[in-house]
């Protein structure tokens, strides 16, 4: 059984207005993760995810590509202790 981890991802590129958040929710829910995706004012998308290490890693791999209209430039990963992780995974505004 994998360890449970909590991670914050900051995704930059063309990731707003291309169904990035909605697609992230679908992928994260399929991986049984808790958390959310939300747009940031600077054009990035923030993704908070908590769950099994291998499932969080699978989400991270997907974040580097995202949905078909997205053009991801970078994905920053950092530890995310002290955050709220909704279940099911959702879009935050």
Automatic annotation (TrEMBL):
Note the superkingdom of the native organism: Bacteria
Report if keyword Hydrolase is assigned.
yes
Q: Which of the seven top EC classes does this enzyme belong to? A: hydrolase
Question: Could you tell me what reaction this enzyme catalyses?
Answer: an acyl phosphate + H2O = a carboxylate + phosphate + H(+)
Provide the alphabetized UniProt keywords: Hydrolase
Family as reported in the entry's similarity comment: Belongs to the acylphosphatase family.
Output this protein's name: acylphosphatase
Per the UniProt entry, what species is this protein from, by scientific name?
Pseudofulvimonas gallinarii
């Amino acid at each position: 059984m994998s360890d449970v981890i909590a991670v914050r991802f900051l995704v930059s590129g063309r990731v707003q207005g291309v169904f990035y958040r909605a697609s992230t929710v679908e992928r994260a829910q399929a991986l049984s993760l808790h958390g959310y995706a939300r747009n940031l004012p600077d054009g990035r998308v923030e993704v908070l995810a908590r769950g099994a290490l291998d499932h969080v890693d699978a989400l991270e791999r997907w974040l580097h590509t995202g949905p078909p209209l997205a053009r991801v430039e970078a994905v920053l990963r950092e530890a995310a202790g002290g955050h709220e992780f909704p279940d099911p995974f959702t879009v935050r505004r």
